[in-house]
C-alpha cells in the first residue's frame, strides 16, 4: 500500500510537471498571429473598394463607408498619440479626443480621392516581425505597372493586433505628419495646430465637395 502511494505521488508530480510545461507552451503560443488577423481585414477593404455600389455614392458617403471598415483594424488613438509625440502627455483627455477626431477627419479627406484609384490591385503578404507587443506586417501592393512595398506597424490590444502606422516605399505616414506638426506645435502650440487642422479640413471639404 505504501509503495503504491509513493508511485501515485510520483505519477501525480510528473503529470503536473508535464501539464505545467505544456500549459506554458500553450500560453506562449496563444499570442495571435498578426498576418492571419490582417489578411481578412485587407480582403474586406479590397472588397469594399471593388463594390460597384461604392462608385454611385457621394465622396462623403464613400469615405464614411471605407473609414468604417478601416477602423476595424486601425488604432487611430495610437496613431494620433504618436503623431504629436511628447505633446500628447500635456493634453487633457478632452483635448486628446479633440485631436484624434480632427486628425482622423484630415486623413479621411486627404485620402478620399484615392478611393476611386482602386482598379483591382492585389495585396501579397511577404513576412512579419513580432517583438513583444509590437509587430510589423510586410506586404506588396501589386499593380499592373509596378509593385509597391507596404508595411503595417501594429500594436497588440488584448488579443487584437491594431495598426497605427503605414510605411509605403519606406515613407512612414506617422513620421510624415509628425514632422509637419512638430514645427507648428513648437511655434504656435496645440491651439495653433488645431486651428490649422480645422482650416485644412474645411478646405478639403470644399475642394472635394464632401461636406
TrEMBL record:
<dbReference type="Pfam" id="PF05494">
    <property type="entry name" value="MlaC"/>
</dbReference>
<protein>
    <submittedName>
        <fullName>ABC transporter substrate-binding protein</fullName>
    </submittedName>
</protein>
<dbReference type="InterPro" id="IPR042245">
    <property type="entry name" value="Tgt2/MlaC_sf"/>
</dbReference>
<dbReference type="InterPro" id="IPR008869">
    <property type="entry name" value="MlaC/ttg2D"/>
</dbReference>
Amino acid at each position: 500500500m505504501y509503495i503504491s502511494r509513493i508511485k501515485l505521488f510520483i505519477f501525480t508530480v510528473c503529470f503536473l510537471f508535464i501539464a505545467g510545461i505544456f500549459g506554458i507552451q500553450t500560453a506562449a503560443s496563444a499570442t495571435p498571429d498578426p498576418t492571419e488577423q490582417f489578411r481578412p481585414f485587407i480582403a474586406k477593404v479590397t472588397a469594399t473598394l471593388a463594390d460597384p455600389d461604392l462608385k454611385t455614392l457621394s465622396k462623403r458617403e464613400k469615405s464614411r463607408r471605407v473609414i468604417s471598415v478601416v477602423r476595424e483594424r486601425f488604432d487611430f488613438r495610437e496613431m494620433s498619440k504618436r503623431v504629436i509625440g511628447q505633446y500628447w502627455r500635456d493634453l487633457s483627455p478632452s483635448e486628446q479626443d479633440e485631436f484624434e477626431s480632427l486628425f482622423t477627419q484630415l486623413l479621411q479627406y486627404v485620402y478620399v480621392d484615392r478611393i476611386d484609384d482602386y482598379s483591382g490591385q492585389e495585396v501579397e503578404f511577404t513576412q512579419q516581425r513580432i517583438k513583444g507587443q509590437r509587430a510589423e506586417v510586410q506586404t506588396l501592393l501589386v499593380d499592373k505597372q509596378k509593385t509597391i512595398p507596404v508595411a503595417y506597424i501594429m500594436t497588440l490590444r488584448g488579443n487584437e493586433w491594431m495598426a497605427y502606422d503605414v510605411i509605403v516605399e519606406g515613407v512612414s505616414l506617422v513620421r510624415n505628419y509628425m514632422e509637419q506638426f512638430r514645427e507648428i506645435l513648437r511655434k504656435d502650440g496645440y491651439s495653433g495646430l488645431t486651428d490649422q487642422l480645422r482650416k485644412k479640413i474645411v478646405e478639403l471639404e470644399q475642394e472635394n465637395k464632401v461636406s
